[in-house]
Each structure stands twice: as C-alpha cells, then as structure tokens.
C-alpha cells in the first residue's frame, strides 16, 4: 500500500511552533517512527507552504496512490482550489488536524475540503496521522 502524507503551511515548524498546541516533536522525527512501525507500507511525505504546490502534489498522486493523509492547515479554511483538487482525483483523502480545530477560533470550524474527503480526524496530536493511516486498512 502506498500512502502520501501531505502537510500544508507552517507545519514545517512542528516542534518549534506553539508547542502547547502542536507539541514539541518535529514531523520528520514522527514520520521516521511511522515508517519504522509500518514497514509493510510505503509512506511518502511532502510539505509546502504554497497552495499551488499542494494542489500539484494531489494531481501527481491522485490516480496512483492508495491514499492521502492531508493536513491542509490554514488552507483547510480558505482553499476552494485544494477542495476542487481532492474532488477531481480518485485516491481517497483523509483530512487530519493535530489540534481540535473546533475548540479554537471560530473561523477554524469551517473546512472547505471536508465535503470532498473520506473522513476527518482532529485533535489527537500527531497521533491523528496514525489514526488516519489505519482508516486505509
């Protein structure tokens, strides 16, 4: 099984950025743990702060991968483009969030991508990614 973890803006700062909300582990360290634990899977990773690069990556893998785990970060609440890209591809996408977005600012309650994804996992820290991974078994 081939999965892509796709992270949006500012998630390159995990481990440094607001550790009270996002924890103190880098995503790269967490990814190594996932790859070691799930050796039977091919888990690829891509992060960008640029909306168009995220859309390009969805187009690139959207007909060949078995699943995408997407944390679009702030683009979740603003990007019709990413929502349309998810709708256009065949590969199922799980929306994930590290924090419980519904316990934060009101604008975070609206997800433009939610109507086009298989499901949403929010609020379990980095474990949200592993929970999403399990949804593909």
Automatic annotation (TrEMBL):
Its annotated function is as follows: Catalyzes a trans-dehydration via an enolate intermediate.
> Which reaction(s) does the protein catalyse, per the Swiss-Prot or TrEMBL entry?
3-dehydroquinate = 3-dehydroshikimate + H2O
Q: Looking at the keywords, is Lyase present?
A: yes
Task: Extract the Pfam families matched here.
Answer: DHquinase_II
Q: What is this protein called?
A: 3-dehydroquinate dehydratase
Identify the pathway.
Answer: Metabolic intermediate biosynthesis; chorismate biosynthesis; chorismate from D-erythrose 4-phosphate and phosphoenolpyruvate: step 3/7
For this chain, the family text in UniProt reads: Belongs to the type-II 3-dehydroquinase family.
What phylogenetic lineage does the species belong to?
Bacteria, Pseudomonadati, Bacteroidota, Flavobacteriia, Flavobacteriales
Task: Please list the residues that make up the active site.
Answer: 22 (proton acceptor), 97 (proton donor)
Q: Which SUPFAM superfamilies match?
A: Type II 3-dehydroquinate dehydratase
For this protein, the Enzyme Commission number is 4.2.1.10
Which source organism does the UniProt entry give? Tenacibaculum todarodis
UniProt keyword terms in alphabetical order: Amino-acid biosynthesis, Aromatic amino acid biosynthesis, Lyase
Q: Which residues does the annotation say bind substrate?
A: 71, 77, 84, 98-99, 108
* CDD domains for the chain: DHQase_II
Task: State the oligomer form and interacting partners.
Answer: Homododecamer.
Q: Which GO terms describe its molecular function?
A: 3-dehydroquinate dehydratase activity
- Asked if Cell membrane is a keyword of the record, the answer is no
Q: Name one GO biological process term.
A: chorismate biosynthetic process
Which residues are annotated as site, described as Transition state stabilizer? 17
